[in-house]
Write a structure and sequence with these properties.
The chain is mainly alpha-helical. The chain folds into 2 domains: about 1-15 and about 145-205, no CATH class; about 20-130, Serine Threonine Protein Phosphatase 5, Tetratricopeptide repeat, CATH 1.25.40. It is about 65% helix and about 0% strand. It has helices spanning about 30-40, 55-70, 75-90, 95-105, 110-125, 130-140, 150-155, 160-165, 170-180, 185-205. The longest helix is centred in the C-terminal third of the chain and has 22 residues, at about 185-205. Residues about 1-30 and about 35-45 have low confidence and may be disordered.
């Protein structure tokens, strides 16, 4: 089933979250700032010197892991673990990436950083075809999205993983709510198009 999600592909950054390169939750404490400077000097450091080379990313993550292991707990932990997860995901190590992102969620991140962590997890689940997990992660993002338009866009993005996870009825109900109540006309129109597509495929299957 081809679902046209061009609108949703714009992500929710425009209405809910700034670009992922922005250091959400970055430290202000002097000791933590010193730690961050040490991190930023690392070879292939994922915080500043972004790279697509898997080996450099693995080295950088190893350096960050050593830093965390040798330090007492700090507000910086969630921020570092988030970037470790992002780097591991870009190195093709999805399982390890998700584990680090889970650790970041458990390290008391700010709401803005929590939203970034969940978004990264959702993207990895999408790439790994983990439809159910992607849907649940997107659902967890909803309470953190303040903009009505951003929330509608996020909910519209849930439709594909819901269908792939086999919850067609719930997906249809969500589309109906978006068609009737979404803040953006573009979301309402797109939801109606998806409803029509789903109804067509349902009718075709009954013939």
């Amino acid at each position: 089933l081809a679902i046209s999600l061009g609108l949703a592909r714009a992500e929710i950054e425009d209405t809910a979250l700034a670009d992922s390169s922005v250091p959400h939750g970055a430290p202000t404490d002097s000791r933590d700032l010193w730690q961050l400077q040490v991190i930023e000097r690392g070879l292939g450091d994922p915080l500043l010197n972004t790279t697509g080379n898997p080996e450099r990313l693995r080295i950088a993550v190893g350096n960050l892991e050593s830093l965390l292991a040798g330090s007492r707990r700090s507000p910086l932990d969630a921020y570092v673990l988030y970037h470790m997860g992002r780097s591991l995901g870009r190195a093709g190590m999805e399982h390890c990436a998700l584990a680090h992102l889970d650790r970041a969620l458990n390290a008391s991140p700010s709401d803005a950083l929590r939203l970034g962590i969940l978004r990264e997890s959702a993207e990895i689940h999408d790439l790994a075809d983990h439809a159910w997990s992607q849907w649940q992660t997107l659902r967890a993002m909803a309470p953190l999205v303040e903009s009505p338009a951003g929330l509608d866009t996020l909910r519209f993005k849930m439709v594909v993983p819901m269908l792939e996870a086999g919850v067609r009825g719930a997906a249809m109900n969500l589309l109906v709510r978006l068609r009737d109540d979404a803040a953006l006309e573009s979301i309402r129109a797109s939801a109606q198009q998806e409803i029509e597509l789903l109804e067509e495929t349902e009718d075709f299957g009954e013939e």
